[in-house]
Amino acid sequence: MLRYNFKYEWLLLIRNRWIQLLSILLLLLFGFAVYNGIQKVEARQNSIEAAVTELKTQETATLSVLDSLENGHKVSVSRWRLPSRPVVIGNSLARVVNMPAKSTAFIATGQSDLFTHYVKPTVTGDDLSMSYTEMTSPVQLLFGSFDLAFVIIYLLPLLIIAFSFNVLAAERESGTLKLLASQPIRIRTWVLQKLGLRFFWLILCISVTLLLVFVIFSFDFTANWTSLLVLIGYIIVYALFWFVLAFATNIWIRSSAKNAIALIGFWVLFVLLSPSILNQLSNSLYPMPSRTLMLNQMRTLKAEATKKQDKILDSYLRDHPEYAINDSTQTRNFYHKYMATQNLVKEELRPVVEKFETQLENQHQWAHTFSWLSPALTVQNALNDLAGTSEKDYQEFRSQSLEFAQQWRDFFLPFMFNNQKFAKSDYKNLPAFAYTYKEDATHLRILGLLGISFMIMLLVFLLKPMKQKISIV
Amino acid sequence: MIRINNLTKTYGDFTALDSLCLTVKEGEIYCLLGANGAGKTTTINLLLGFIKPTLGSAYINDINVVEKPKLTKNHLAYIPENLMLYPSLSAIENLDYFSGIANKKFKKSELEAFLVEAGLQTSAFHKSVAKYSKGMRQKVGIAIALAKDAKVLLLDEPTSGLDPKASNEFGQLLQKLRQKGVATLMATHDLFRAKEVATTIGIMKDGQLKQQWSVDTLSLKELEDSYLETMSYNSLQS
Amino acid sequence: MIVHTFRKEIKELWRDGRVRIAFIIVLFLTAIAVFISTNHYKNVNEQYVEASANEREVWDNQGEKNPHSAAHYGTYAFKPKYPLSLIDQGVDKYTGTSIFLEAHNRNEAQFIAASDQTGLARFGDLTPDFILLFIIPLLLILIAYNSITKEKENGTLTLLNSQGAVGWKIVFGKWMAIFFPVCILLSALFLITGLLLSNLPDFGVFSWASLFTLLVTYLIYYAIFINLILIISASVSKSGIALVLSLSVWILVCLVLPKAASNLAEYKYPYPTRQEFSENIAQDKKQGLDGHNPWSKAAKELEEQTLKKYGVDSLSQLPFNYDGYRMQKGEEHEAEIYFKHYNYLKTQYSNQNGIYQKLAAISPYLPVRFLSMAIAKTDYNTHWDFSDAAENYRIETQKFLNDHFAEASTYGEWGFKADADFWKQLPKFNYEPPSLSKIIQTNTSSIIIMLVWLVGSFTLLFFTTKSL
Questions:
Q1: Average pLDDT, stretch C409-427?
Q2: What is the per-residue pLDDT for C419?
Q3: B2-75+151-237: what fold?
């Protein structure tokens, strides 16, 4: 039976122009989505590159000034902007701490439109005032982006529903089912084969059009073939889930219109409702403390600290005797007080900041635990991870960049407190930053989704036992 | 051969088929007459395993249809009242598909031979069946039966909606099959066609087989009279 | 005839279990959404009141200080939440809620709620606007997709025609039967919301007129949707096809086009990145007057001008503290730079808006989306308005502080400190959101597009169903 089903399903799909329509539609959708994704990634890479180039020119200029200074030439720079002052270097030559796009970043916009991809932590800057949100029109954030992930998560299920909702019901409604059922076959097996074949053709269409689009946009296959395979793997698992649902409704529900309504209902439930309900619940269960109230706290702390600046510096120096000893001049100026205060404020604010972090972590954990309730969510997370645009990636960037910011400050602190001049030779010792993506295995979740599909399948056979008839008449 | 023993189907209080017993031997054509809702189609659906009997049993070539529905379908062919095929496939493709999924594989020439035997004009073989008339579709149905080498043929109102010429052609086809030893059970309203093709005629009413004759024993007039009599007698009684 | 059809349709709909269940589910979801939003609204409002009061207290009690130090110390402007945000959250989640007002710098609103949430937030929230904009149209499709095709399939249409029924009258009866339940339900929901809001203790700027306008907007949105669904149902012969087509329209209109529009808008009129933006400003600032840098070229020019204007030879002879004066001039200059750069952003946004409006020609979702946010005062324009108001307040504050510095101290007196209760004299930041009539004015184009959709779809429906 499979051989004949295979041969004639193909003929029917071609003659009813399903394959052609599907291929064109997929090509258009994938093409537009990949194009958008690549635009975004290019803009992101360009802005990083521009910042790095800008820094380089500034560096050359600064280094030449330093050179002149060290050779005793006169320079036309005001006294407090002299690059021999470590604080000047630490502020004006702040590194472009950036998060370069993964080669797969175009797949999912994820949180990349919300967060910046580079920051320039300065020596006098504080962590809290460093803004990690990108300047994007909020309307854009509201509408979201037409990316590959959107096509896969939102539109692909709808294509599958259109492709499979009436496999059995249409036969019943057009009358061919009677003739079929008088053949020595099991209708359930026949439906399974038919849907399986449609699944096969759909996946083939997807793979071919996706490859075609990737070739058009000159995707680097040799370097990233694993990502491509993973992507297609995710698509297969997600599509399988929807086909299994279609199988279940086909077996259970008689009329094609009701099948369509049931499947659309599932789509609304899994793609639209459950993520938003989960989000709402995670916000209610782990509410974020108020940022505005945090501001109040921060300001009070800072105000108090500023009043006690002298004392703070004294105690700071007591804690760090190495600074006081090595300095021959023992002069203390504004920046010494400032840095010492800054440190203290940071320490005191830590519990407040941590509250946000733990709450976000809790929300994340909660969402992670329940994400299997929505296959759409599972796949979105997986795609974001694949693209390196998930919220975890940006959190990682935040923590890595803050770590670097501390490293940067720590590099200049001895210079400042020892009132030591920054020399050209110190330049090569400046800390450098390179972001490393943390690879987390999300395959397990996807496997879980595969498991859910099999469970639904099993349920169909358990709840609608073999002996129970599928109604023919 | 079709054997029906005491076959009963009830839906709640309603009895669709009441203790039906009949046998159709090889080379026989049994015509079931009766009004709408008399139980003719129910009988055929029971034989096809589309519905399950409440009581009794039925055999196709001595295989129990309730116990081994899949197996019995190897031996039977069925032409519903309105035989529908895949409109975007041609006659030959439809035939190939339906015999293919029944595990019968044929060469193209063999398939064409079946269609010729079923009386379909050669020019239509490769055309999409979307524009076929009911008669033409039925011929494809017969070809499917031929290809399957079915020993039992179940027909549900095959001649309703056919023009007299097509109806006549269909009758001749049935005779051909009869000569091959096929046992045919045909539900119909058409007294005239029944008298023409049948070897045995039964009249059903309210799920019961009321009368049964061998066709040689009565004329068309007698058949019509007793049909009307059965109908009125029963309706008076109820 | 219209009334007859209306009665028959209402009866049929009510008897249809599917419709009833769908109705109940939507009602249930709406109840949850309203409940959650109310809580959220209350929380945010409490935080807002507390934070504003706290911040003012911190400002008032900063003690003796140089006015310019106070300027650097700065203050915060907090964005209030408006009652109708209960119905439409708009872009609130994606705009910051507090702006730091300090000397020399115009800051962006900080603390975007979405950045404090998991990636889940990007799927959208279960809020009333989500239900109003997405789910109810879906419900309408469910109710109406087969309202004409089923008559064709059952053959009842021929029967109706043989009775001398007029196509468009039947359709209008059906239209009313679909529209009225939704209309009544929605009006009831809005009424409850209105009562709820007007009974909240600090309901502030809540106005029944706004609520009513919002209701009308949504009713028009649904009327357009019903028209589209009925046009489809009248033009095809099979219910299944009508359903698939209606759903495709929904997907295209509500999901695909807004996203495509957003990509197109960003591609054609991109915003600078945050870093680029601040770098550009820093570049401009470098070339101009810096209040802290008396040695720059611009500062020298100002010095000469001022001396000439007051006819004196040295800065100490001026009737005010020149340091404070220069500081204020520097501030004004910087404010101009910010004005220019923010105006660029606004131009980019209004260009983007142009793209949204062009695409609104194929998606009635877009004008309704924008209008709804605008009326609820949760749109981007309101955010701009707030941000501009905060900037004006910042400029005024700086002037207030610098003027005091200039007047109450003498030249070179950097150690000057203002009295501890001087700070209380600074007027409070009071933000008045745009009024309803102002909102309607700024959104005329959206309103016109929406009305064109309404009239256009009605006309098309009339002509497709004139003779069925």
A1: 80
A2: 80
A3: Rossmann fold (3.40.50)
